[in-house]
Amino acid sequence: MVQNDALLEPLEGYEKLYKDLHLKNTEALFDELTRKGRVDVAANKATVTQYDKKLGELEKVKKAISRSKGLKIFLIVLSVIALLAGVIALVSAIVGGRVLWPSILALVGAVALTVLFTVLICVKINPKIKQNEQTREILQTEADLLLNEAWTQMAGLNSLYDWNIPQSLVTKTVPVIQMDDNFDEERFTYLHERYGLEKNTDATRSTQFCQSGEILGNPFLILKDLKQSWVNQRYDGALTIHWTTTVRTKEGTKTVHHTQVLYACVHKPKPVYDYDTYLVYGNEAAPNLTFSRTPSGASGLDEKQIDKKVKAKAKKLDKKARKAIASGDDYTRLGNDEFEALFGGTDRDNEVEYRMLFTPLAQKNLLKLIKTPQPYGDDFAIRKIKKLNYLRSEHAQGFDYEVDPVRFVGYDYESARANFISVNTEYFKSLYFDLAPLISIPLYQQTKTREFIYDKKFASNVSCYEHESIANSFKKELLKPEHAATPSILKTQLISKQDSADEVLITAYAYRGERRITYVPQFGGDGRMHAVPVVWIEYFPIERRTQMAVQKKRSSRPDFNAGAARAEFKDMLKSYSDRGAYLYERGVFAMLTDRRLTADAVRRMGETYGDADNSDAGELAKMIFEEAAMHDRSNVPDEDADALLQDENAETLEVAADEVAAAIEED
For residues 374 and 351, is the Cβ–Cβ distance under 8 A? Predict the structure, then answer.
């Protein structure tokens, strides 16, 4: 199957050509990197085998130590119980005036048992624990040495992983898909002026990652945003009340004690955060058309179930068409009921252009994607607005397109190879099927973009989307406002362009939380009204500003790591940043600065690279770990902010709440 022809039917093209071809290309690249990194595969395998064996021995010794310590504790507890039982028996006999000798015998037996256990612990168990502890230390040292040796053996390969590996493999497999190193200002201006893409000014969204490129000359952009919204959070509270009543019995009167738990709740606004990954595609075909579609739910259904679904939907569409004729709306039914029912798009506003896009071949391709469960089925939503197409798939929400090269780093060659192949094949599959609904439309493939040549200077070197993406790569602690109880939405603003560098202001928007108590009146079983305390969190907006310098660098990760080890680079960093926070990714170098950029600073930033001696594999491994520590994409905290704020001094708060509630009741 010829490559270009394979794209005419994307699903078959993937299964019959691209899937195996990409696997072959990925394996070939890893083998090439292995040769360049001069990895002795056999030696690494032997080292890892010894290391795994040593870990097994270490685990056995740890279990033996745990068993011995458990036995020791058991014997000590048993001795204490025996002694206590003997003493209690003797005291009871004395107090009760009973015969003493059975109790004395019991106490003597307990003492004898304790002496026996003590001897056993001192003579047998403690020496065994000590011996095993020494063995554990020896085994741990030997294991650490083997692990260090394995890392050293893999250091050459680990240093070669670069940021553009997944993207370059995609282009090698499907040459018509071109991937950019970064989303620069020229590409953004092109998308903005020709297709209408706006700047990312939404204060509730922050670009975590962006990847631009083009397919058959038409631009696309993958975006991962952190978005903030509000929910009406429910907070629950409880109050336990007590009262007594007097009841008559045959013997007279009796006091009865009652207990009841009163519950109450309040609803208060709370900020919540979530990630959203989507694709933006620009194409001048059908430039006046707007429509949308959402997943049909047909994936996994058999033909009989799909037919039933289509017939039910067709009746509704017939009714919609009749109403459109009566009201003069521009909706006309297509002849393909199955496509109309499963694909949707019934909110279209231009029937002529809609039919130009969705030819019989386009309908056939899209129905195959929708009805075939593998690999993802109908998990995509489309929103076309004039020249821009927005596509959001469910599978992309669980995949991170920002593949940090550190993800490939490892000490075990075989595991590293399997991981490298897995990540890159999954990357290709996810991206291919994000593009597949668009590739399925022949008119999109046939519409070639005209060359767009600018004769003007751009306001910045990289786009505002890329500025935010880079800002979000720094450790969150460096940018978040003080006392922030939520993640930060980072927004960037260009301060100035200094030759090849952009001076950028980062503003981190977050919320601090303060605990509040609302008292909700509830009627109790005692016939009285009670104030039930409900603890909730009130959120207040806070922000923090930080300066950042961003510079496009035509380099690679290995070259940057080599240059960053030079004394000149470290001196430059200290002179413009007290925090020493910097990173390099996808052809962009960035550092947090404490003062304004100057021409000298830009010049010195441009001189950060130079020849470096990377022959020391141990130093290479160290640099790789330091590099990994510089990156942090985890913005959403594991713990819920409400839970953290309420747990702090929760006992004190509960006491205070009860005291206030009691005071209210007295009043």
Answer: no
Length of the chain: 667
State how far the Cα of 448 lies from the Cα of 219, in Å rounded to an integer. Answer: 11
Helix axis angle for 19-36 and 413-439, nearest 10°, is 140
Q: What is the model's pTM?
A: 0.84
How far apart CA 524 and CA 357 sit, in angstroms, is: 67
Tokens of 517: 């108590």
Encode 534-549: b = buried (16+ Cβ within 10 Å), e = exposed.
bbbbebeebebebbbb
Give the dihedral sign, CA 466/472/473/479: positive
Identify the pLDDT of residue 598.
66
- Chain centroid offset of residue 270 CA: 21
Which of 558, 557, 573 minimizes the C-alpha distance to 607?
A: 573
Q: Is 632 left (phi over 0), alpha (psi -120 to 50) or beta?
A: beta
Burial class (CB in 10 A: 0-12, 13-18, 19+), 50: middle
Peptide bond into 481 cis (omega under 30): no
Return the DSSP state at 578: S
Q: Phi first, then psi: what are they for 530, rounded to 5°?
A: -125, 150
Q: Which residues pair with 256 in a beta bridge?
A: 245
How is residue 331 written in tokens? 């909706």
* pLDDT tens digits for range 34-93: 999 999 999 999 999 999 999 999 999 999 999 999 998 998 888 888 888 878 777 777
Strand (E) or helix (H) holding 24? helix 19-36
* Residue 115 CB-density burial (10 A; 0-12 exposed, 13-18 middle, 19+ buried): exposed
Strands 252-282 and 388-393: antiparallel
